[in-house]
Design brief:
The structure is a single chain. By secondary structure, this protein is of the alpha/beta class. It folds into 2 domains: 3-185 and 345-370, Rossmann fold; 188-343, Glycogen Phosphorylase B (Rossmann fold, 3-Layer(aba) Sandwich). It has helices at 15-26, 73-78, 122-128, 133-154, 165-175, 213-223, 236-242, 258-263, 279-285, 316-327, 333-340, 345-370; strands at residues 3-7, 32-34, 51-53, 87-92, 106-111, 159-162, 179-181, 200-204, 227-230, 247-251, 265-270, 290-293, 308-311. The protein has a 7-stranded parallel β-sheet with strand order 3-2-1-4-5-6-7, with helices on both faces.
Length: 372
């Protein structure tokens, strides 16, 4: 079975790229097709010899400013030639679900999310697109074109996989397609169970508006409890303005230092709505509960009163009530850790291998029948 992997663009090393890294292990001989590639931001596991890029790679400034070229990305991904492959496996949150494959080639897409700024985030995207009034006027027709292309391109996929039932519902809504849920891999083996009850609350996150870190800051400041925030992002200055003596910003924290940070925490705070959410499971692997906003993928990975608690409004008062309720619970770190083991890297590897093999056997049989 000749396999090709496809990813939107390799210009950062985040959650989607970590999944791709594991997929490269599942399919060790598969080349990786991507629109734009920046080797400077990726670990050594992304062997440059496996990477195949689009014409956008040769454009000036494309590595740093790829988001300026959304109208060209459909054209770029449609020009990839997959005639030599049996299976194309795309790991995508935007354009590369729309690659064109020949009739003999099966396309399986692990869809992290339907393209957010085209669909449910489109109105906010237009508001924030540019301060230039002329550019802002061009955004709506541009998004309308991309929305049409994205819907019809999404129909080219033979089988959808995704990371949570929450995202499967969005795929159903926007693409009218069903998706099999396979939770993404979590590096839980890096974390040790900690029996100690820490003296601070923890956030591990990029500092961007939808993460609602402001809610956690205000809750901790009003309760007078320490909050440590690990991460960087464009909201840093605004969040610093909101913070008082109980909040400390750690900036970027290397992966190697995260286990000790989780071990010393009382609990992880998770005030955002996410498609899945890796950090609650990292916290669980360290035996720590998570206090999470009751929405999105967190509802599929947190068990109330067992591995964490939910709060129902993205307001400080709601989070404060959950923090006080959590203090009255005697948490079992070993049981919390055991729950995290369900999301181990090895489980993802095995499930992907089995699923792709089964789908390919079925695809071959159907293809042979059609041409009999």
């Amino acid at each position: 079975m000749r396999v090709a992997l496809v990813h939107d663009y390799l210009t950062q090393f985040g959650g989607a790229e970590r999944v791709l890294e594991v997929l490269m292990e599942v399919f060790p001989h598969a080349p990786v097709y991507t629109l734009i590639y920046d080797p400077a931001v990726l670990p050594a596991s992304f062997d440059q010899r496996r990477i195949r890029t689009s014409f956008l790679q040769r454009w000036p400034l494309s590595r740093r400013h790829h988001r300026f070229f959304p109208l060209l990305m459909p054209l770029a991904c449609e020009q990839f030639d997959f005639s030599e492959f049996d299976v194309v496996f795309s790991a995508t949150h935007s354009f590369t679900k729309g690659v064109i494959t020949p009739a003999h080639t099966m396309h399986v897409s692990y869809c992290f999310t339907p393209t957010r700024y085209i669909w449910d985030d489109c109105h906010r995207y237009i508001r924030e697109f540019s301060h230039n009034s002329w550019l802002k006027r061009l955004a709506p027709p541009g998004l309308s074109y991309l929305r049409l292309w994205d819907y019809f391109a999404a129909q080219r996929v033979d089988h959808y996989l995704t990371l949570s039932q929450y995202v499967a519902g969005r795929i159903r809504k926007y693409y009218q397609r069903e998706a099999l849920v396979i939770a993404p891999p979590v590096e839980v083996d890096r974390f040790k169970v900690s029996q100690q009850i820490g003296d601070y609350y923890l956030i591990v996150s990029r500092l961007v508006p939808y993460k609602r870190i402001d809610v956690a800051i205000e809750a901790c400041e009003r309760l007078g409890v320490p909050l440590l925030i690990a991460g960087t992002g464009p909201e840093h200055k605004e969040l610093v303005k909101r913070a008082g003596k109980w909040t400390r910003f750690l900036g970027f924290v290397p992966d190697a230092d995260l286990p000790a940070l989780y071990a010393g925490a009382r609990a992880l705070l998770f005030p955002q709505e996410e498609d899945f959410g890796i950090t609650p499971l990292e916290a669980a692997a360290a035996g720590k509960p998570t206090l999470a906003f009751n929405a999105g993928g967190a509802r599929e990975t947190i068990i109330p009163y067992h591995t964490g608690l939910f709060f129902n409004a993205q307001q400080p008062e709601s989070l404060m009530a959950a923090m006080q309720a959590a203090n009255a619970i005697t948490w079992d770190p070993t049981a919390i850790h055991a729950h995290a083991q369900l999301f181990r890297r090895q489980h993802f590897l095995q499930k992907i291998q089995e699923t792709v093999h089964t789908l390919w056997m079925s695809y071959q049989a159907n293809h042979a029948t059609r041409h009999a």
